[in-house]
Design a protein that fits this description.
- By secondary structure, this protein is an alpha/beta fold.
- Helix content is 39%, strand content 15%.
- An 8-stranded parallel beta barrel has the order 1-2-3-4-5-6-7-10.
- It is globular and about 50 Å long.
- Bound molecules: zinc ion.
- Residues 67, 107, 142 line the site of zinc ion.
Length: 277
Amino acid sequence: MLRIGCHLSSSKGFLAMGKEAINIGANTFQFFTRNPRGGKAKELDTKDLAAYLDFAEEHGIAQILAHAPYTLNACAKDEGLRQFAYDTMCDDLRRLEHIPNAMYNFHPGSHVKQGTEIGIGYISDLLNRINEKGYHATILLETMAGKGTEIGRNFEELRTIIDRVEENSNLGVCMDTCHVFDGGYDIVGNLEEVIEEFHSVVGLCRLKAVHLNDSMNLLGSHKDRHEKIGEGKIGLEAFRAIVTHSKLRELPFFLETPNDLEGYQREIALLRQMAEA
Ligand SMILES: [Zn+2]
């Protein structure tokens, strides 16, 4: 069965998210570990978490995806900002120790004017430091659209980061369909070639999740503006090909489309229908 869910607000806690997910036909979900713009996370409500874990088991939610605040910049020029990214990620990962199988997704960051080489060095240094802590969650680097000086604009950059982390068996990649399309990978005209390229550069064994988003903009636009499924430049047929592809269909899919819960419910039903047809 297709594993699919959407991004949910974590403000009401884990049990509320689990119930919301099941109500809209999802069997997984993504959430921000704290305010996406940063700031302090609430301490874990252990009662809520215990109730959620029971609920998740009962309803077949096997794995969820935590998303780091997108303002973190692991490759900032300022050492204080890099330390802040490290402290925040450690704090998130410490809390995720209480959630079995959780994965943790982050945006690699923007090198600003320092250049890709220095930026990649900072990101892998940070991951090496994090790994000294021995957290269990799989850490995912997200494929980026290449807006401004974003790192992760192509598969090679992600591969280089992973290669420079000594103990890298806990590292994976989350492929965002809007971002890779905006980054110039033609998942509409040639999905097969993009998957092969990912495999030869990074390795499909590293691909752990997919963000399913349509794009408001054209191939290679480097813009990063998400659109509802089927209403953007990627289009419904490409999504059908993605959720039914033999190398992708076992992965968990997460919608981050501009929708309310009803909209997500419709998209989940549509994608399930296409996957199970
Ligand atoms: Zn993201």
